[in-house]
Model the fold of this input.
Amino acid sequence: MSKKYYLPEDKLPKNWYNILADLPVPLPAVLHPGTKQPIGPGDLEPLFPMDLILQEVSTERYIEIPQPVREAYNIYRPSPLIRATHLERALGTPAKIYYKYEGVSPTGSHKPNSAIPQAYYNKIAGIKKLTTETGAGQWGSSLAFAGAMFGMDVDVFMVRVSYEQKPYRKAMIETFGGRVTPSPSNRTNSGRKILMEDPDTPGSLGIAISEAVEVAATNADTKYCLGSVLNHVLMHQTIVGNEALLQFEDAGDYPDVIIACTGGGSNFAGFTFPFIGEQLRGGKKVRVVAVEPAACPSLTKGRYAYDFGDTVQLTPLMKMHTLGSSFIPPAIHSGGLRYHGMAPLVSHLKELNLIEARAEQQTDCFAAGVTFSRTEGIIPAPESTHAIKAAIDEALICKETGESKVIAFNLSGNGYFDMQSYMNYFAGAIQDLEYSDDDVRKALEEVPVV
Ligand SMILES: *Cc1c(COP(=O)(O)O)cnc(C)c1O
Done:
């Protein structure tokens, strides 16, 4: 009896979903860092091709996925929606647990869902080279893969601590044809400035973004790609939730609660926005839970304010939950969740009380990941274990109350390149870090006044 739901080729979603069309309150404008006035499409042209800029500000509900992008998606999509019957049995819960498994992609996570269209739109705009940052290496390897699909050069600035901890991710980027530089580096003004202040810095996503943006802004044939946070990235990821809606139809179920981990917010948005959209248009209500690491708690402890997306303060100002753009998150094992800010769209939904947020400790998440491995047979990415932890907690509440709720989470990736983290966990070498109110105050000192 199969508990796996795919979709036939003729039923695959042909559109992305744009939640900007259904927001009850419009999203606050993005501001120019100098004038503090709303920016226009032209301001973003040094960094992005016009198709992506127009997607960033579009209020069309559905945007068609171009045929070449759908063909590249077909290498690994649809991803399965799987009923976690073995986990349910092990927990002894009356709840039904489903997960959408994005680990089937060429790089093992959801990230190619946006890397592919970003490479495609740059390609048709005549761009030859893409720069980007990567934290754990997931985004860098995904963009390198997408670059290989469309014949583009990909130049990746990799956060130094990950470059050292994750040599296989670096090798993967190179296998797909990309170039990797540990960040901060001597290749950019931004990198040299940081290295002068702190030669031993572990680096951060904020710094790597500064370097990648600088290279794109100073080379005419080069544009920049971001792996999360921006509206168009979140929209590309909605292929995940659009498939899940159809797969739940097949399963004859609908979730009561949907859960995903949040770093910059893209896999969370991709999985949940199509369900939130149904609700906003008068459809079924659903509880939506974002789960972040206690060591980098932007949604639960950050301030909702205008802030820079990078450390050297080159980017426009976005209104988001932030820990301050100079905040360098501790080197926790969920590298993909180490970002000082949260996507403006996700932050906005939190302010509107359309989503909940919670923070979890690393060791609790690894424990949940191990339980999941031993029942469902997939070793999850450390990032994804945050969603699993929350799903298990929800299922255990159902065990107490006797409710048979439908719980669904996004398994954003597998952990086969993260086995060192699991080894550290089993060796008892993983620490729980609490982010104190004092840390919050300090980190927020530099948030600009708007
Ligand atoms: C990058 C990554 C994340 C976090 O990024 P979001 O933009 O918040 O989705 C989560 N899970 C995995 C497996 C990742 O690679």
Summary: The pocket of pyridoxal-5'-phosphate is lined by residues 109, 111, 138, 228, 261-268, 336-337, 381, 383-384, 412-413 (CB under 6 Å). The first strand starts at residue 4 and ends at 5. Residues 66-108+237-446 form a domain with the Rossmann fold fold (CATH 3.40.50.1100).
